[in-house]
Amino acid sequence: MDLFHTLIASVIRRLAAWLLAMAILWLPVQPVFAQEGGLLTLPDAIGLTLAQNPELAVFPLQKRGLDGAGQTAALKPEMELGVEAEYKHFNEGDSDNTPDPEDDADNEFELTVTLSSVVEMGNKLQARVDVVNAQRDLLIADEQAKALDLLAEVIRRYTQVLAAQELVVLAEEKVALAREALSAVSARVSAAASPVSERMRAESSLAKAILAQQTDQSMLVYYKHALSALWGQPAQNYRVDSAELYRFDPGASFEALYERAQANPAIARFASEERLQASRLRLTQANSRPDVGWYAGLRVNPAVNETAVQAGFSVPLFTAKRNRGAELTAMTELDEVMLRREAALLQLYPQLFLAVTSREQALGTVSTLQDSVIPKLRQALTEVDRAYRRGRDSYVDLISARDELLSAERARIEAARSVLLFGAEIEQLTAGPLGPMSVDSSK
């Protein structure tokens, strides 16, 4: 898990914490295992996921969409050109439409050309631009949070592969012990020192061990496919270094981790969302200021050699009153963001505390099993096996000693997996390594 720690620690030291995930996204992709069945490291898995996962590929598209929205928001009110033509034809028999005798023309053609637009009041253009900029900030925060979520998910699935591979090794050991037990029982049965039923039980135990081994192998294949599915290649075959399962880093105090967690991208996102809602509120308030519409034109009647200039303006009435409901909605949405941030912080504390305490407990379990329990159980199995072959212990004692050892080894694998899984959760919540932030990232 060193790479994840190194990435986060180095970025936090050199840049502001909110740039963490963006910096990770631009890391060069690590060279991937070159051939089928090659060794897959955690750097390989992280590089492939960040480069090929479609959940991150949507953000550049959304950014391009916001660029278009920004161009639209920066547009000033459009100008409108209006042209109106009027043709009058006078009939000689219609006294009402008869032209003036002094006019030479029997028909009249009148042309009116106008130019109109709107003067935006309340600095609406800047308010629209501010909304788009706030949407960009929120998109960056979402991208950071999604990158950290994916990093944590890579570690979780990689940990599952490590544990599954260790369980396969343990299943192989169980099969080997079952074969040894069957050999010992067969020898005693052949010497008439044990009943035939003991050999039958040993054969049944071997069959069950082989069945359990097949199950563990199937789970290993599943977890491998689940991991490689993160970069779109679920059918790939590879190996992992099982020793990574037992490499643990020291953790910082809960107080230090909680202080870090309050600034992680998931929480910082609320600040970006709050700025967006505040910008929308300002735009809504600006819309309460009525825009002034204006027009200017020229009317020409060549028949009577008449030219007239036209001009005017219009202002909608009661705009602020009609916009009052939209303002109330915008203010409510802004208040809701702040309340959701407080609720998220309240949920964060017990979630982080549970992860920290559970990891410490799992660390203690691994240490106890590895240093005290398993060595003694392994020695006890050797003694019981020797005693059984000499006729001093029963078959039940042999099976009991073997099962106790295998159960302890399985418990150690499960505890080690819990340590790494809880560690990944802590790093996701804090957006940083488990240890002190001043850790040397070159190590």
From TrEMBL:
<dbReference type="InterPro" id="IPR010131">
    <property type="entry name" value="MdtP/NodT-like"/>
</dbReference>
<dbReference type="Pfam" id="PF02321">
    <property type="entry name" value="OEP"/>
</dbReference>
<protein>
    <submittedName>
        <fullName>TolC family protein</fullName>
    </submittedName>
</protein>
<dbReference type="InterPro" id="IPR003423">
    <property type="entry name" value="OMP_efflux"/>
</dbReference>
<comment type="similarity">
    <text>Belongs to the outer membrane factor (OMF) (TC 1.B.17) family.</text>
</comment>
